[in-house]
Structures are given as structure tokens and as C-alpha cells.
Amino acid sequence: MRLPVAAALLSLVACSESTEGTTPKLEGLINPLQRLVTPARVCNAGGGAAGWRLELIGSRFTPVPRDALTDTPSVELPQVSLSGPSDYTLPADHLFFARTELMRMDLPTRDSTPSNVLPPGAYTVSVTNPLGGTSELEDALRVVPPPVITNVTAPQGFHYSAGSPLILEGSGFRSDALPLIVLQREGQEDQPLFTLAVVSDTRIETEVPPATPEGTYALTLTNPEGCATTRPQALTVDYAQLGALGVAPRSGSATSDTTLTLTNPTSPGSTPFTSPGTHEVYLVAPVKTDPGQTVNIPLYDVQFVSATQLKATVPTCSGFDPRPVTDPACPGGVVPGTYGLIVADPSGAFGTIPASSGFTVSP
């Protein structure tokens, strides 16, 4: 068994046409999470048990077989070292040889085992082959600290039918690249925040999407190089409430539109209908083209009558299809049944009518 093992190990250094000698050439360092960013950036926290996986690109990376004629043959890999705000040499078991043009390394962090916290800053990376020869690449790696969220505020409160401005304060934000920010609540899918601006490394301006369900959310921010932070119970979404809404008539045919009157009686703590602005009214129901999925079907011709009354038309036959529908079978219409409604006021307040008190679409 010794000769085949020895031959396999020797082939690592003898078979590659790009192996021209013992002096390596380091051309770049890549963080696979940001392949197009140079110099590569890596966070000094997170990264899992082994740290962050990085790629060294170049040529003539030349491992050397050791003890090839024994029962425990091994390979000595090139040594990888960092120099900058701190000096560090990668442990041998954190280096992985792919081919003479590519090596991979796991860079330890605060949270890995073993752990190592590199101070933030620019680092020179060097590769030294076992038989001699070193290649250095200045400013090949930028170490950055993890983000920290210290405060989350919604300065204007929450608006049901429009985005609600949200301000994040902290440190370690990346003004040169947009982070991923999501709201998280048990039992619901993560809600990404799409509209955002990184004002500085201590301030981000974003917004909570319209119609985000009320409740308390954790907020997780992930920088592009991979490091993330979560602030539990970061914000509680709540909206001003309309009154005890009512609707009349309570039913209508599935083959024709029905005009409704929505009432909002005044009561302590409730918000009246306001004008000017656009009122949004939805029937929460499935349509025939997808009867298993409940959706918000917008009502047409919503009109403000007074602080206590709106008029609106249920597109019972058309659902989401353009009106008028000429097919008497109403193929895209609302599935017959009894459904609730949602009403959003331009003030940001909203209210609901439960299905038990809602509108019935009759066959």
C-alpha cells in the first residue's frame, strides 16, 4: 500500500503543468459571499465553528508529501500568514489544497473553535511553499467588525396603507454595500425590508412595508460579508384603529357587482374616516382561478361620504379581472362563501370586519 500512496501524494506536486517552481504567486483573496469585492472583506465574528471560508487565487501553490513510505503518509501545505494591525498564521488544519492555482482557508473568528479575533483593518496576505519561496499581496484582506444595533425607532408611527419610516442606530453598518434586514415573528415568514439607505456606519434609514401585520418583531441585520446581528423585540407594529365597522347589504350575487355601504360609528379611541386621500377596501376571499388561496380583493369606486360612511363596489364577478366581464360564468370571480373585509384610511388607521359579520357571496 505504501507505493500507491506515495505515488498519489507525489502527483500533487508533479502532475500540474502550472507548477513551475517552488515560489508561489498569490494573485487574490476572495470571500465567496462577495466574489466581486476587492480587497476581500471578512468579519471578525460569526462564520460558524471553523470560521469564514476564503479562497486564495494564484499559481504554483506547491504542497509536499511527508512520510510517503510509512503507514501514516501526509501532505505539508503552503503556509498562509496575515500581517497588519495584528500578525496571524493560519493553523495547518484550516488550510485546504484544491489545485496549484487554488487553496481554501477557514479564518477563525471570535465565535469559532479555536477562536481568534483579528483587529479591524487592512492585512497583507502571504503564502510560503514548504520548500521555500514566499508571495505577498498587500491590502488583500480587510477585516471588519460585526454590526451592532443599539436602537430601532419608527418616528412617525405605523401607517397601514403606506410604508412606515424606520431608523436603525448602532455601529458596524456598511455604507459601501446594502445589508439584508428582515423582521421576524414566530409563526410568520420573515419580512424583508427592501427600501433602505445606509446613511453612515452608525445609521440606517428604512421602512416597514404597508399592511405588515400588527405584533412584536425581532430584527436581524446581515452585512454582505456574512456577519449578522439580531435585536429581539426590536419593534412593535400597531396602527390607529377605525371604529366597530359595519357593512350593508350583507350579501350579493356571484354573477354581478354589489355596491356596499361601510359604516364607522364614532366611539372613544377610534379614528373616523378622513378626507382627502384614498381609502382602500378589500374583500378577503379566494377567486375561482385559485380557490385554495385567500387574497385581498380590492373594491372599486370607493367614495368618502362622511366621517362615518364610505361607499364601495364588490367586484364579485370579476375578482381581479378587468370589468366588465362578459362571460356569464364569471371564471375569475369570487368563490361563493362568507368573507371578512379590511378598510384602510388615508390617515394610516385601519379596521376589519370579521367573516362572521362580513359579506356573503351567494351562488
Please tell me about this protein's structure.
The chain is mainly beta and 363 residues long. The chain is 4% helix and 47% strand. It has one helix and 29 strands. The strands form seven sheets. Strands 21, 23, 24, 27, 28 and 29 form a six-stranded mixed beta sheet that branches. It has a five-stranded mixed beta sheet with strand order 2-11-10-6-7, with no helix packed on it. A four-stranded antiparallel beta sheet has the order 1-3-9-8, with no helix packed on it.
Provide key terms for this protein.
about 375 residues; mainly beta; Immunoglobulin-like; 3 domains; 5-stranded mixed sheet; 1 helix
Give the low-pLDDT segments. 1-10, 12-20
Q: Mean pLDDT across all residues, rounded?
A: 92
The number of distinct helices, counting runs of at least 4 residues, comes to: 1
Shape: elongated
Integer count of domains: 3
Q: Helix amount, in percent? A: under 10%
The total count of strands amounts to: 29
CATH topology of the largest domain: Immunoglobulin-like
Distance between the termini: 81 Å
What are the secondary-structure elements, in order, as H or E? Answer: HEEEEEEEEEEEEEEEEEEEEEEEEEEEEE
Radius of gyration: 31 Å
Instruction: Give the strand content.
Output: over 45%
Q: Which homologous superfamily in CATH is the superfamily of the largest domain?
A: Immunoglobulins
CATH architecture of the largest domain: Sandwich
SS class: mainly beta
Largest sheet features: 6 strands, mixed
> What is the top-level CATH class of the largest domain?
Mainly Beta
